[in-house]
Design a protein that fits this description.
By secondary structure, this protein is an alpha+beta fold. It contains 2 helices and 6 strands, in the order βββαβββα. The chain has a 4-stranded mixed beta sheet, with helices on one face. α1 packs across α2. The N terminus is likely disordered.
Length: 110
């Protein structure tokens, strides 16, 4: 059984385990490596049959109310996959490992 994100208020949602999303890509319009990091993440998701729509993209400069906190984002790009945080341009294998571990959890939702 796959978990579903639960609407909290407005555009804000929470996963079963309380996160804003299982996969969050923190970006900025000034981020040089964010597009490449998004491609690596997208490829890893595709490898495991997960839609790229599972990515919650958060612009750290915008004041969006998506519910994804940016307190622990110290550099860009930053990608959170479940409880694993990858910073900078991630290695493909590290990204695949993080995605695989996340989708094996009961609380993973797309």
């Amino acid at each position: 059984m796959k978990a579903e994100a639960i609407p909290v208020s407005g555009t804000e949602t929470k996963t079963e385990c309380g996160q804003c999303s299982c996969i969050v890509l923190y970006t900025s319009k000034y981020c040089v490596f964010c597009d490449a990091a998004e491609e690596i993440l997208g490829d890893a998701l595709t490898d495991f049959g997960v839609s790229k729509t599972a990515i919650c993209e958060v612009d750290v400069e915008a004041k969006d109310e998506c519910g994804c906190r940016t307190d622990n984002v110290t550099m860009l790009p930053t990608i959170k996959v479940c409880n694993k945080q990858l910073t900078g341009l991630p290695e493909e294998q590290s990204m695949r490992d993080a995605v695989m571990q996340a989708i094996m959890k009961d609380c993973f939702c797309e």
